[in-house]
Request: fold
Amino acid sequence: MAPELAEAFPPGDFLTEELEARHWSQSDFAQILGRPAQFVSEIIAGKKEITRESAAQIGAALGTGPEYWLNLQNSYLLWSQSRNEATRKDLDEVKLRARMNELAPVSLLLKRGILTGQSLTEQKDELIKLFQIEHIEDTPRFLAAARRSNQDEEPTPTQKAWLACARKRAQDLQVSSYDPVGLTELAERLSRLVANPENFSKLPAEFAAVGVRLVYVEAFPGSKLNGASFLLDEDAEKPVIALSGRGKRLDVVLFTLLHEVAHVLLGHVTPERLVIDEDSSTEPAELAADEKAGEWQIPGGLPVPPTAVRRGWIESTAQRIGVHSVVVLGRLQRDKALDYRTALAKGAPTVSSHLERWSHSH
Reply:
């Protein structure tokens, strides 16, 4: 909170004292300044503000700097303003809006329909509910564990809001007891399971069967988030994997999902650590998760590709491994054996429509 302003007095009071000390009348002073008498009487009565020009003249006459008189004038105006009820209310609202936007991008959440309140108070109450805090000034506890994959900075407001939405979705899900062995087996067959992209729609049920809450919250603009993994209620038996659908292409979203599964199974997700995944990172935990995800995505790995990779080779290799051809294409792009702008990627399947179904399936 800003400190309360100490009571300030009108600059006219100080000017009166200065004139009395010199035994000058108001009209004497007006004559010294070369101004009409009314000018001096209005400053003394507080009806006229001291400007830069008049501060310089008063300062020259009294042997003080112009800053002294300008500061007296400004201090008094600021103090008077702070006593004004309407102004105080406006400033309190500015402070509240600033705090709300430290937590979340309010205008974006209104646009997405995540916040629906018309008034500032309603929106504040909705944010308190979304972040599950007692008061708007509180720090959401579950975010204290959040670490971004490629830096030690705390999450941005956009990322905080996305995580809060993901947690809210996860809390609505009923799942079986957590089964790490079952989760490992699911990870090993996942790439083959989604060789038919339609099966992407069924993934929340597959994960629920092994005790993992899998949720989708569409990426917020500028959040740079691919996904996250965390524990619900800081309980090691309640892992949550959240995807943003960023990248959209089947192989990209599948890789993010497997990367998050790897974080969970490798023990990176703890009550003290909520993992946020952005773009590639060289942190050891991230590299380990990438490696594991790569092994699961293409079981047995890829054979050495020919110098000139053609669609036929990609399709026959994918068929032999039992995965979708875009998964093989994506691996070649990751390994830089194919350019990211290759024409072979034309018409690659996206999973956005399947992800949309996740939120309607429970």
Remarks:
- The longest helix spans residues 85-103.
- The mean pLDDT is 92.
- The domain at 11-83 is CATH 1.10.260.40 (434 Repressor (Amino-terminal Domain)).
